[in-house]
Amino acid sequence: MNNQNQHIYVCSDAVGETAEAVVKAAMRQFAFNQVKLKRYGHIKHEDEIIAIVDEAARTGGFIAFTLVQPELCEMMKEEAIRRGVRAVDVMGPMMQAFVDTFNDSPKQQPGLLHTLDDAYFRKIDAMEFAVKYDDGKDMRGLQLAQVVLIGVSRTSKTPICIYMAHKGVRAANLPLVPEMNVPSELKVRPDGLIVGLTMDPEKLASIRSERLIAMGLPPGSRYASVERIEEEIVFAQSVMKKLGCEVIDVTNKAVEETAGLILSRIPESIASTSS
């Protein structure tokens, strides 16, 4: 398949994050070398749709859209058919399912996902929490967090915490190294979940080497050696065993997949404090 210079257009009468997230999830199933993803948000006029469809027709791309305004949605569908461009209505089938099943009508109001309600402020609070208590910077976070992630360096602890923060969950993380004493705040938690993250040593060595190169450092340091990594993992596993926490191997898992597993394991009594 010729997968060079593929074009995908994301269009919305709100921000467009929903359609973009769906497109990116689908993209992971294909071996694209180069994809140009272009997002158009806050669409209000039909001439904007005409221009976007025209661009998609010229580049040979397709459109993923979330347009809740009926006139804009119909305009997108009609213009796409007229120009021979594939346009995917991301929200339409789901909204129709609500209508058909519950005999209700949609509000047809763009941007409800970003309404400044309690859930929005919980997410902001969780984001600030994740940044403040990242990488063991403040051990008080180990007591305050709903979820604590532990593991050796570069096992995706921080991005997973940030992802869970977007779900309104307060998460902290702590790196484990043999030279470090396990803090008492981790051993005695009044509530919350502890999850250990581990990874294949060879894969982790590759990730650490790339990290060193990105920082302008020599990739052959002990930090990226398999021997050092195996030493760290043995130590981390001993800590996780003593804590009795669940351990997830993140070697071949995306951040979203690991976060989903962790979120599904949060006890209801803890989850209710973030809802």
General description of the model:
It is built from twelve helices and eight strands. It is an alpha/beta fold. It has a four-stranded parallel beta sheet with strand order 2-1-3-4, with helices on both faces. The protein has a four-stranded parallel beta sheet with strand order 6-5-7-8, with helices on both faces. Helix 9 packs across helix 10. 30% of the residues are buried.
Key words describing this protein structure:
12 helices; four-stranded parallel sheet; 275 residues; single chain; globular; alpha/beta
List the helices and strands and how they pair.
Layout lengths: L5 E7 L4 H11 L7 E6 L5 H14 L2 E5 L3 H14 L3 E3 L2 H11 L15 H15 L8 H4 L2 E5 L5 H10 L4 E5 L8 H4 L5 E6 L2 H14 L11 H18 L2 E4 L5 H10 L3 H4 L4
Parallel strand pairs: 1-2, 1-3, 3-4, 5-6, 5-7, 7-8
**What's the gyration radius in Å?**
23 Å
Question: What spatial form do the alpha-carbon principal axes imply?
Answer: globular
The mean pLDDT is 89
Uncertain residue ranges? none
Task: Report, as a whole number of angstroms, the end-to-end distance.
Answer: 45 Å
Number of strands: 8
Structural class: alpha/beta
Largest sheet: number of strands, sense, barrel closure: 4 strands, parallel
Helix content: 40-55%
Strand order of the largest sheet: 2-1-3-4
Specify the number of helices: 12
Order of SSEs: EHEHEHEHHHEHEHEHHEHH
Which strand-content bin applies to the residues?
A: 5-15%
In short:
This protein is α/β, with parallel strands linked by helices. The chain has helices at about 15-25, 45-60, 70-85, 90-100, 120-130, 140-145, 155-165, 185, 200-215, 225-245, 255-265, 270, and strands spanning about 5-10, 35-40, 60-65, 85-90, 145-150, 170-175, 195-200, 245-250.
